[in-house]
Recover the amino acids of this structure.
């Protein structure tokens, strides 16, 4: 299929919804579940399952319920926010740490203490 990410960028919203429906249907069939069984597991009605599998839009909440029932919440891992620091911010942080160490070594005594 090539670069899936690029394919998705070029697809219309309706085509992406259809792609999602095909994925869910594929997983459901692999797990040997009927639409009715999946609907019961997800707490939805069978019509909702049929709707997404046929390329119709559903609510985000319904999608999450279906993904949970299929044990496919891993597809949401891409939404994880990592708290990585940029190289520029890291350099600034290191400079601040060096400045604090330098200031302590220049004036090692407490305020008011003459060091005697």
């Amino acid at each position: 299929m090539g670069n899936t990410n690029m394919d998705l960028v070029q697809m219309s919203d309706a085509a992406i919804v259809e792609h999602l429906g095909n994925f869910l249907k594929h997983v459901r069939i692999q797990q040997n579940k009927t639409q009715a069984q999946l609907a019961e597991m997800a707490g939805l009605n069978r019509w909702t399952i049929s709707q997404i599998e046929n390329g119709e839009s559903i609510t985000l909440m319904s999608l999450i319920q279906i993904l949970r029932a299929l044990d496919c919440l891993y597809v949401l891992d891409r939404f994880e926010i990592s708290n990585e620091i940029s190289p520029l911010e890291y350099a600034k942080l290191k400079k601040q740490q060096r400045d604090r160490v330098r200031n302590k070594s220049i004036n090692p005594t407490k305020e008011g203490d003459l060091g005697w």
User: Anything to note?
Assistant: The radius of gyration is 27 Å. Residues 4-77 form a domain with the 434 Repressor (Amino-terminal Domain) fold (CATH 1.10.260.40). The chain has a mean pLDDT of 86.
